[in-house]
Design a protein that fits this description.
This protein is of the alpha+beta class. It has helices spanning 6-20, 31-42, 116-122, and strands spanning 24-28, 46-52, 59-64, 78-80, 89-90, 104-109, 112-115, 126-132.
Length: 133
């Protein structure tokens, strides 16, 4: 089945797996999805990930992270900012603050995908992909 917005599909699969209480979610791979997964891992939002090269596209297996005491997912909210029908761009000084700095915005820049804080530090603007907190 053709997906018109693969990033929104990625975010929805993660969101649905967390609501269902799954430990692992499998997502069709792409370079942008791999970069988003690495950022989520580096920022501590997911437990582990693995890139599997099977089939024509490959898979990303993500082990979701839950709070050990409350059993609630670490990712509270996850949403798309820039959509195929309405792209959102921002300069290096105008990135949105997610939950007053507690969350992250993932930005697609000329230097690759990075968080809003990294893009501000590197003084590059770009397309606002999604937010996570």
């Amino acid at each position: 089945m053709a997906v018109t917005d693969p990033i929104a599909d990625y975010l929805t699969r993660v969101r649905n797996a967390q609501q269902a209480g799954h430990r692992i979610v499998e997502i069709p791979a792409s370079n942008m999805k791999k970069s988003i997964t690495e950022i989520l891992y580096d920022q501590g939002y997911i437990l582990k990930y693995k890139f599997v090269d099977e089939g024509p596209q490959g898979l990303i297996k993500i082990a979701l992270k839950y709070d050990p005491f409350t059993k609630k997912p670490v990712i509270r909210k996850l949403g798309r900012i820039s959509k195929p029908g309405l792209r959102k761009y921002s300069g290096s000084k105008d990135f949105p603050r997610i939950i007053n700095g507690l969350g992250i915005a993932i930005i697609s820049t000329s230097k690759g995908l990075m968080t809003g804080k990294q893009a501000e530090r590197d003084n590059v603007g770009g397309e606002l992909i999604c937010y996570v907190y």
